[in-house]
Amino acid sequence: MINKSEIEQKVAEFLLQIKAIKLQPAKPFTWASGIKSPIYCDNRITLSYPAIRTYIRQNLSALIQEEFGSVGLIAGVATAGIPQGVLVAQDLGLPFAYVRSKAKEHGTGSLIEGEVYQGQRVVVVEDLISTGKSSLQAVDALREAGCDVAGLVAIFSYNLQEATDNFKAAKCRFKTLSNYNALIEYASEHSFISKDDLELLRKWRDSPSEWAGAAEKF
């Protein structure tokens, strides 16, 4: 059985060390939705570090086997989920396909690239879960193609309640190697952030849409 707590901490350590995750409570980032966020995550950076890339690949593979058992296909979510999905599919000796964010506007007009079959049991691989909406679009596309989606795995989740609600409504299980809660605790314990920063980061997790105002008053 995999040690989930140990993996959460190790992945958090890696992401902070290589600056795949940046924490800036005093100078927040702005998401496309307009939400102010104290965290920025780009897990594609992990691909540039062979040892970290290997650790993530091995543990995503182990997570799939432990949580979902036997599957027939790994499907990546375009674009950042594609390389992670390819690595996992190779590790498990499984076929791979990926799901575009929107159908091609030329040629076959495909939304799914690669061969999928009616009733094929699939696990979706994503790099990051924020609200879960883009990930669940891929799940929907695979279901519409006749696949049996066992669930989704990702490197990291922001632990937003909206994501939990969206996955529950879609009746899709999801598991991640690490998450926001584990990350901010690790960051505080290892002096990546101050105690005041930790409090601000907790406030964002609890209410992202109202966080900017709270941060200004802190």
Q: Can you tell me about this structure?
A:
With 218 residues, this protein is α/β, with parallel strands linked by helices. It contains eight helices and ten strands. It has helices at 4-17, 50-68, 81-92, 133-144, 161-169, 180-189, 195-206, 211-217, and strands at residues 21-23, 29-30, 36-37, 39-41, 73-77, 96-99, 112-113, 121-129, 148-157, 174-179. Strands 7-6-5-8-9-10 form a six-stranded mixed beta sheet, sandwiched between helices. The protein has a two-stranded antiparallel sheet with strand order 1-4. Helix 1 crosses helix 6 (180-189) and helix 7 (195-206) packs antiparallel against helix 8 (211-217). The N and C termini lie far apart (42 Å). The relative contact order is 0.16. The mean pLDDT is 93.
Fraction of helical residues:
40-55%
Q: Major beta sheet, specifics?
A: 6 strands, mixed
Tally of contiguous helical segments: 8
Q: Give the overall shape.
A: globular
Strand order of the largest sheet: 7-6-5-8-9-10
Measured between the Cα atoms of the first and last residue, the distance is: 42 Å
Structural class of the secondary elements? alpha/beta
